[in-house]
Amino acid sequence: MTTEPTRPPVADLRMPVELTRRAERKPAPPRRRLWALLAALGLVLVIAEGIWLSKDFWLGQPAVRMALTPVLDRAGYTLERPRLRDAWGVSGLNLSAEAGTGDRVWHLDAVLVNRTAILQPWPVLEVTLRDWQGRLAGRRQLAPAEYLPAGLPADLGPDALVASDRPLRIRVSVQLPLREDGRAAPVEHAEMRPLP
């Protein structure tokens, strides 16, 4: 009778097993960290510069001004007022000569209105008179104290900040110099332009 060789139990089988560890993450080299820090700093600077260059836009937003004003007031600072182009509108311009002055004194009646959503100081107005060929007959710049009507309440005075819902009718007078022939230059039309 032949005997079959006996197999050793499975538990007794010892196979060489080699366990490998997962590769550990090496810390980023110091140079890579430095570049990441510089890139983050550059991004912050670009964002800050973008905000600074567009500050007139941001300061022209009522919600931004309402949020910043109390904070800056507590810190003892005042919020800079942006210079907005086309903040003021002139409508209903009417040109008339004063009787008995030989067309030397002209009156311009107009309505001045703040077209922005934030309070604005009164503008300096530039009044230009031209003849029928478009040649300059006279030009004058007027500060608010020179064109605002007398008897206005304090909230509409020359140093006031004016809301957009407060249109004001104004009258500006311009006296033209006499020419060599003793007459004033003829005037055909006028322009009134608020300066920023």
TrEMBL record:
Q: Per UniProt, which keywords does this protein have?
A: Membrane, Transmembrane, Transmembrane helix
- Transmembrane regions listed in the UniProt entry: 34-53
What name is this protein filed under?
Answer: DUF3426 domain-containing protein
